[in-house]
Specification:
Protein name: ABC-type lipoprotein release transport system permease subunit
Largest sheet: none
Radius of gyration: 15 Å
Organism: Streptomyces caelestis
Keywords: Lipoprotein, Membrane, Transmembrane, Transmembrane helix
Order of helices and strands: H
Structural class: mainly alpha
Distance between the termini: 52 Å
Helix content: over 70%
């Protein structure tokens, strides 16, 4: 098995999951501050 590829895919998935969590949370916090 090509471990560098596996590590790259895992790192990419973690990055996508982090971005998909942080961006909506930031948007929601901005909306709450304005209200």
């Amino acid at each position: 098995m090509a471990w560098p590829w596996v590590a790259g895919v895992v790192a990419g998935c973690l990055l996508l999951a982090t971005v998909a969590t942080v961006l909506p949370a930031r948007a929601a916090l901005r909306r709450m501050r304005r209200a």
